[in-house]
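Lecture 7 notes: from sequence to structure.

We start with a single chain of 314 residues. Read the sequence below before looking at the structure.
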Amino acid sequence: MKPELTIVLANPRGFCAGVDRAIQIVERALERHGAPVYVRHEIVHNRYVVEDLEAKGAVFVEELDQVPDGVPVIFSAHGVPKSVPKAAKERALTYFDATCPLVSKVHIEAERHHRSGHHVILIGHEGHPEVVGTMGQLPDGAMTLVEDAQQAATIALPNDKPLAYTTQTTLSVDDTADIIAVLQARFPQITAPNKEDICYATTNRQSAVKAIANDCDAIAVIGAPNSSNSRRLVEVAAANGCDKAILVGRADEIDWRWLQGVSRLGLTAGASAPEILVKEVIDACRTQFEVTVTEVQVAEESIHFKLPRSLITE
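Now the structure, written as tokens:
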């Protein structure tokens, strides 16, 4: 007889409006222009999504110089430095910008602070494509990256300019609050964003994990290792009462020994992981356990972002 397992689904989970829009942009571009359509960087950080789009005719590259002349190119949801669309224009490439509008908001904010004479602090993770894209909105030296509270307490900053901060959209809400508190203690006059930069989807998915963490023996987060928001969900689970938390890409990655002694499994998915992978994990659990599924919802999401005008069907 199979052991019993209750799966507690966190809601909201999975795709956000920015990810959904980015995938639609690739699909619409393929419909309009035919294959191949090139995409600079993974459109979103999920191999299942990337492979599905590759099967439809998308070609993923890391840099613009890998894109041949005469084919459309799409910039990923994470955003790109200003140098990338500039280079595309110089080559007369047709390009579509799939940058999430909430990331674009951060870009606009950083530029506004720079124009008003501020030195900008970006709270984020070095090397993440979103951070590379945001830093690339301003001239070299106009922005300083801060990754943690310790760095916020010690990093040298210009003393001849007012300061402003902005953040990557996919950070831990709690960790970011700690970093901001350190900056505000050091620099009481620092200018904050008009509205929090961490996006609604990141905030809601972290809140949902917090709501189930104490009630679960283990939590599995479906997402990619290079997905910032997915990795943060694992950290949030551990910080809120569920030490046994892991990141899994697909059901076939689950080590069933990890679930020995677990009777309540929390399950969520990062903002770039499709719901089909959640179903896949539940179905895999049914082969090992007598499964009961329950759901905990902390927020309703109804946000929708418009596609670029050039891809809207006339």
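The first helix runs from residue 17 to 33. Keep this in mind for problem set 3.
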